[in-house]
Amino acid sequence: MSAGWSWYVIALIALNIFGCVWLLWWTGKRRPGDPAPTDTSHYWDGDLTEYNKPMPRWWINLFYITIVFAIGYLAYYPGLGNLPGIGNWTSAGKHQRDKERFDATLEETFRPYVGQRIDVIARDPTAVALGRSIFSNTCATCHGSSAQGAIGYPNLTDDIWHWGGSPERILETVMQGREGVMPEWGKVLTGMKGDNAVDYVIAYVRTLSEPASMQNNFMAAQGKPLYDGVCVACHGPDGKGNQALGAPDLTDGYWMYGTSKASLYQTIAHGRHGVMPAHGELLGETRSRLVAAYVWSLSHGDGDDADSGADAAAPGAR
After folding, report:
1. In the chain, N or C: fewer CB atoms in 10 Å?
2. Is 276 annotated as a binding residue?
3. Tens of pLDDT along 167-178?
4. Is 279 helix (H, G, I), strand (E, B) or coil?
5. According to the annotation, is 20 in a ligand binding site?
6. Which of 61, 89, 117 is the last residue of a domain?
7. Is 234 annotated as a binding residue?
8. Is 142 annotated as belonging to a binding site?
9. What are phi and psi of 57, to 5 degrees?
């Protein structure tokens, strides 16, 4: 706070302390002409008499002791404006000391999992419970408490992975984040095939997960050349995507932004920009490994069926 506000606080505190001392002194003394403590002549119900007895001296002295304690407290701790106090105590310093103590406790808790493979950690129930706790505090905001995601946020409990589902790829996602960009293709497609071009591509993309629907499908037939000319670079000729780019598999029937025509039109014509923030700096490597192990366990059970190779790719793409 500014120097002016600091002096204002100091003056206000001094005024209050002085006021308390004066009030105790003024109300505790007897003056010439005051009635005797037992002589007020106020009676109720015939036998209840109001007296004017002062408070006991020991009680008054307790109040004085309280005031002295308050002055000492304000002198030791920074209670007088900007003055630091003779104890040099600060809330920031207290927070830092508490943080260091709790960090040391956490480090001891996480020590057994330092550098361990994700699929190995996923077999440890205690580690999975720790990972679940970290997930709830850090990741559930977007992916939900059950990790089943929402529109625009992937479901982490299935076997569909856009960026790869191997243990190390999941750890990479957690620590470094991901940024998936679907460009706007509306103007390009319209220039190639007219106003219905995006609808044609939507019709063809839908057939990738249901090949039988391609038969006698005029709109899908119109959309295939457009797909081959524009979309194939990322999603591949068979529509199975590219995990290196985060391009989703279009043949599995999973649509992160919804299956409606309006949603697909928005994706193709106007594009999408999805960002998974990097959490490596926030969580550190070991905690990132724990949360990655928890996420990996959601679609692999307890890991007993895990490939011993940490880079073995999971089916599909998230």
Report:
1. N
2. yes
3. 999 999 999 999
4. coil
5. no
6. 89
7. yes
8. yes
9. -60, -40
